[in-house]
Automatic annotation (TrEMBL):
It comes from the Bacteria. InterPro entries: GTP_Pyrophosphokinase, NT_sf, RelA_SpoT. It comes from Agromyces tropicus. SMART domains: RelA_SpoT. Pfam families: RelA_SpoT (PF04607). This is GTP pyrophosphokinase family protein. Residues 67-190 form the RelA/SpoT domain.
Length: 234
């Protein structure tokens, strides 16, 4: 319910202005809805791959799939930080992580494999790739980031929608989750000692990934995996 003050303010607005406000609200909802649909398209593609591997192969590289669409407040905050013009077209062209999908895999080679299979599909267009596995961030963060564009078919026709896809191992995901909680706890002002420990933990996670993949390939009689040559299609 509106407060008395809000109601009095609303009462001073003429009908034409209210109609324009309602129209903007509806257009904003439709704009954000497209990102939800684009996210669903990517999830469907990944879920099909996951089910196919479960039924046709002895090994499934996808452990978990999660997703989110940024809130309108988060989009507005990012617009302000980036100095984006407040138009739908500017947002569409500049902010490419409104819809996000995260894929968790067991091994590093799985991350590249899933990226190759997803981006090989004819209706998926790769906009940008950031390989933080081959080149980790300074704090040790590792993940494979893809910005892909998929068509969303609505009553008004096909609409291309950008979706960010993050693909990482279980160890990487655990580290990233812990880092996020620590940064939230300290309001992003994390003590240097903790930052050093986080970076060291990232190195440990990377070493664990490498050891577990070597063990996995040895058990299954697979040839050694060249990490630098893993990604061939993206």
């Amino acid at each position: 319910m509106l407060t008395d003050r809000a109601q009095r303010t609303l009462d001073t607005i003429d009908g034409r202005t209210l109609d324009e406000m309602r129209a903007l609200r509806d257009e904003t909802e439709r704009f954000m809805q497209r990102y939800k649909f684009g996210m669903d398209e990517v999830i469907t593609k990944l879920s099909i791959l996951r089910e196919e591997f479960s039924q046709a192969h002895a090994y499934n590289p996808i452990e978990h799939i999660s997703s989110r669409v940024k809130s309108l407040d988060s989009v507005i905050d990012k617009m302000r930080r980036k100095g984006v013009e407040p138009t739908f077209e500017s947002i569409r062209a500049t902010i490419t992580d409104i819809a996000g999908v995260r894929v968790t895999c067991s091994f590093v080679s799985d991350a590249y494999r899933i990226a190759d299979l997803l981006t090989a599909q004819e209706d998926v267009r790769v906009i940008r790739v950031k390989d933080y596995i081959a080149e980790p961030k300074a704090n040790g963060y590792q993940s494979l980031h893809l910005i892909v564009e998929v068509p969303v078919f609505l009553s008004t026709g096909a609409h291309p929608v950008a979706v960010e896809v993050q693909i990482r191992t279980i160890a990487m995901d655990f580290w990233a989750s812990l880092e996020h909680k620590i940064y939230y706890k300290f309001d992003r002002r994390v003590p240097d000692e903790l930052l050093d420990q986080l970076t060291d933990a990232a190195r440990t996670a990377a070493e664990l990934d490498a050891r577990m993949e070597r063990l996995h390939r040895e058990v299954h009689g697979l040839p050694p995996h060249a990490r630098d040559g893993a990604r061939t299609e993206v």
